[in-house]
Amino acid sequence: MFHLGWFLYEAVQGWGSAEFDPDYGWANPRLHQDMARRLEQACFDFILLEDLSAVPDTYGASREVYLREAIHAPKFDPAVVAGLMAAATSNIGIIPTLTTSFYPPFLLARQVQTLDLLTGGRVGWNIVTSSSERAALNFGMAGLPEHDERYDIADEYVRLCKRLWNSWGPGAVVADTASGVFADYTKVHEVDFSGAYYSVKGPLNVPPSPQGQPVLAQAGASPKGCRFAARHADIVLTPVNHPPAIKAFRNEIRRLAEEEGRDPEDVKVMAVAFPHICRDEAEAYEMRAAMADMPANRVEAWVAQISAITGIDLARYDLDEPLPAEVNTNGSRGTLDWLRSSGATIREMALRMARQTPDTPMVGTAAQVADEMAAVMDEVGGDGFLIAGPLTPANVRRIVDDLVPVLQERGQVRSRYAGSTLRAHLGEF
Fold first, then answer.
1. Of 116, 206, 6, whose CA–CA distance to 421 is shortest?
2. What pLDDT does 68 receive?
3. Is the pTM of this model over 0.85?
4. Is 194 helix (H, G, I), strand (E, B) or coil?
5. Rounded to an integer, what distance in angstroms lies between the CA atom of residue 260 and that of residue 304?
6. How many beta carbons lie within 10 A of that of residue 193, not counting itself?
7. Which residues contact residue 150 at a Cβ distance below 8 angstroms, ignoring those fewer than 6 apart?
8. What are the two backbone dihedrals, phi and then psi, of residue 120, each rounded to the nearest 5 degrees?
9. Judging by beta carbons within 10 Å of its beta carbon (0-12, 13-18, 19+), is residue 244 exposed, middle or buried?
10. Confidence of residue 220 (pLDDT cuts 50, 70, 90)
11. Three-state DSSP class for 270?
12. Which of 82-91, 156-165, 186-195, 347-356 has the lowest mean pLDDT?
């Protein structure tokens, strides 16, 4: 069996496609809530909400393309959306992305612990070290620290959050109305944390949830990021989706986790997948043919998308030449390495980003895609897929009504929740 999550690119869902649903519009909370219920009906482990704290102006030093195409803007606060989705559901996990670069650690620890407690233990935290210089300016910083130092900061940050979450010991909450005692003060402790970057007295003023502390997710792809993920994360997102590459990445994360004194089985490595479910083989054939090219009027939008993620103004380079080897980034290095592999031109990089399926496009009928997913898991060894795509009713329907029942019938994914917390979902198999 393998796990299923949904990667929610937090933007106007379906904008620019025929599947934008005017019945929901672009700022209707019912869309997120209704789709969360649908994914819960399919027994998904969790929904992960990504984030970016800026309106980009990287491409051509202008915001024009980003605002015209609704790329990274508008983008709603993931913690608020997570609360809305959690309020509409009762089993599925919800994981907002929150950055260690800008949130004070006490604020973040309190916010996530509150969500986790009030949902009965269904919340996680997707840990990111922001890669946007523009976002840094929005938070009063002169710029971002260097890539590897951001992980040093994040490591201390997460250790501090764990100390805060554990500042309420087992049995601290008594809630005895007869004696009038809510909490045993001897079991609530200061943390007295003093590190290279942060100093916090504690304790946290929110008790723990039934799962103890929030589930941690991470998507680091650089050597520093992989070590960080292996040390802290319960869920690690792969930066690749070609089966041999997924297997190599998973093996490396598990090796590093063991070096960090963890049981590798406690770390779920989730491969990002973009399945395209078609009615029949004829439709699948047409879809595969369409994926081989990109309309000329969409190239700029996808190049601008890459610019925003990597922090490189690709408008300065020839679309039909590879990005010069000496060009590097203080932004998302994992994304850049993936896109420029095999000597891809910038136009080919845009096509790769647009297709979202560079190596193993899962295009076919529900049964064919289920076969491919099972084959990938057999080759890789586990642990599951993080399905990415717009949260439109049409797209969710294809996954929930067409694909998942085939996987459930084959016993490859769960048909019911055995536990009530996100940690229990992940530990079920």
1. 116
2. 93
3. yes
4. strand
5. 38
6. 19
7. 100, 101, 129, 130, 144
8. 75, 25
9. exposed
10. confident
11. strand
12. 347-356
